[in-house]
Amino acid sequence: MPESVLVDHPRPGVAVLTLDRAERRNALSIGLLDKLVGELDGLAREGTARVAILRGAGPVFSAGLDLAEAANPDLVERSARCVAAGLSALRHSPLVTVAAVHGGAYAGGAGLMAACDIAVGTSDFKICFPEAQRGLLPALVCDVLRVKVREGDLAELFLVGNTIDADRARQIGLLQRVVPAERLLDEALGIAAGILAGGPATIVETKKLLHAAYDHGPHDAAAAEASITEHLAARRSPEAAEGLRAFLEKRPPSWAT
Known about the structure:
- The chain has helices at residues 30-46, 67-70, 76-92, 108-115, 139-145, 151-160, 166-171, 184-196, 200-213, 221-235, 238-248; strands spanning 4-11, 14-20, 51-56, 96-101, 104-106, 118-122, 126-128, 164-165, 177-179.
- By secondary structure, the protein is an alpha/beta fold.
- The chain has a domain at 4-182: 2-enoyl-CoA Hydratase, Chain A, domain 1 (Alpha-Beta Complex), CATH 3.90.226.10.
- Strand 2 (14-20), helix 1 (30-46) and strand 3 (51-56) form a beta-alpha-beta unit.
- Helix 1 runs parallel beside helix 3.
- The longest helix has 17 residues, at 30-46.
- The N and C termini lie far apart (41 Å).
């Protein structure tokens, strides 16, 4: 099926972007990430929207990286660069980005959520970073999570890899609000209304101010390239090959000792 990102404009100044790959649990393929970056760039150029709400179709927000692509050596580097581009597009867009998440967000899917300025989730929402169980390194998502989550909490997410619920996600700073599922979009639109009440230029400058305050200012190409290099080194390792193969074969990985 074609991979797409649906764009709706429910009210002036607001665009809702929906990851529309429900049959694959919105797994982050090269095509889906390319479309997300293209839509965000297009909205920024048009200038008619000031807030972008990101959500997912189907039962979960995003299952994370498309592991079938990740296991293909011919697609590894392009996939990694698309993940980096998607995270950067959300983080550094002149629009205020709001994640409206439901069901679950895993690995890179949770990274997309964290790359947004504000996140609201449903009360049944789950988050997990299973990269270590796949022999992968969360170098790209670490760049966005490190400014939102304390070191000990981030260590638990990455090293232990347990699933956490919405209340725990809010406690550690990954969600700002938790609401019943039927109120998710309305809550995100309410946040957008508050943003739109601010002066357009002032809101843009305030977003820059926040990035500077949390040491996450303008995009650093050298730092981004270093993260991609770390990510690729892990994805090309024997442990990643075994971890991905085990996942696709639905069995526990057999790690070399």
